[in-house]
Amino acid sequence: MPVMLRPRVLVIEDEPALRDVSCEFLQMLGYEVEGARNGADGLALLARQSFDLVMTDLRMPVLDGWGVVEGVRRIAPGVPVIMLSGTNACGVSLVLKPVGLAELEVVVRDALALPLSADAGGRPGAATASTEG
Fold first, then answer.
1. pTM to 2 decimal places
2. Strand ranges (DSSP E) for 28-127?
3. Which is the CATH superfamily of the domain at 8-87?
């Protein structure tokens, strides 16, 4: 009977607690997981070992997530990358298309730091439209 190899995931995260939780969770799901504390360490691991997926934080010291993506494309071109971020991407919100209108509204309001309007379907200026003459 052939031996089934578990997919290997490289988790690159500078916050130790988040890295540990991510690695443990993926291991519970049946993946073989290695962790790295920054992008440079992660790419060094990738150069020495084979991985089926790279999951990286965006904002890290030494080498950020964008640098990781460039390195993965150079070292292991076919390996997919998942990028995670606790904040918007260096001042840029990333939205995958197709995007629903409700999601788009939330992203726009978050970017502008405006509260969501509960009236008139959440349209901007809906609360003041009736008071303008």
1. 0.70
2. 32-36, 53-57, 81-84
3. Response regulator (3.40.50.2300)
